[in-house]
Amino acid sequence: MDIIHCLIFTDLMNPISHRIVGIHSTIDYYPFGMEMPGRIKGDTSYRFGFNGQMQDNEFAGKDGAHNTAEFWEYDCRIGRRWNRDPIVKPWESPYACFANNPIFYKDPSGLNPEGNGDKYKARCEKKLEKRIYSKLEKLRRNNGTPQEIEILAHQLSDKYQNKEWFRYTGTGGYDNEGKGYESTSTTPSGMKRTHQKRIEVVAYSTEKDDFEMTGDKSTTPNNVESQTLIDAKEGDVLKVSFDPLLQPDGLDVYSSNGTNRQTVASTNGEISPLSTPATYNSGDITITKANAGQISFKVTNTSERADMPDNWNLQISLTRAVFKPHVITTNVYNSKNLFFD
After folding, report:
1. Partner of 265 for a Cys bridge, out of 135, 224, 240, 296, CB 3.0 to 4.6 A?
2. What is the pLDDT of residues 80-109, one digit of tens each?
3. Of all helices (H) and strands (E), which one includes residue 153?
4. Cα dihedral sign, 114-115-120-125
């Protein structure tokens, strides 16, 4: 039912003590705002209707079928706007209204849904922080390893998997697939697939730093030693790729903690473009507590030919796990044989 519009009759000589309130009109609506036939009472000349927006009856040729607001022209009969949404949402049609949930959201200006959904979302996120994220943070502060923290995140995901607040944080709305559903298709072998959305907390995200250096005889000396590139910590993954290009060159990548300098990647002497293999790739090098420190490198050429330029290419990448708990949604598929049910 729409907000009841009232007429207030006031005694001008005594405005405070003498008032009579009467019901002006009442209107019942379908979910997206179309007026229910036979459920309209009283004066229908009031300009405003569903969602508090002004009705434009001349536009649709029917009372209560079209509303207008600052950012849209809205057809109440089909629940769609006539113009494109100025806020692009990749997951939703640009003509959708109220996030397709007019019971849960309101949109007075036609710009972006708001209302009870935002409050409920805040409550769900508060529970997520208290019941899961805080426990992961506590284990991290107690020197838990990334593997131990991810295991705890998985266990807590299992524990709260069917809780509405947990599924809401993962799906961004009410989820009716919590217990899964059966598809109507079958495989050639007579298997029926069931599909379930699983909400999972992931404790760590990855960040990557890439460095690329090139050498040129005309601008750099034969032996090139760099300053510190980046600080590598325990658990980070280092990867080195080196190409001598034209002349034999050697590479050493170091880690220094201020006291000691260790070699973490090396060509073990010079490699030639004519050798097999002609390039050096270290693969993944996991930084340990013993060799954590500041990364630098040195390129050497002890047999340079004066008639050839000495070019080379070096690429160093460092990938680190960053504690940043977040929720993801995955799809779980199971199959069962129809012939043996």
Report:
1. 240
2. 998 998 888 777 899 998 888 888 788 888
3. helix 146-159
4. positive
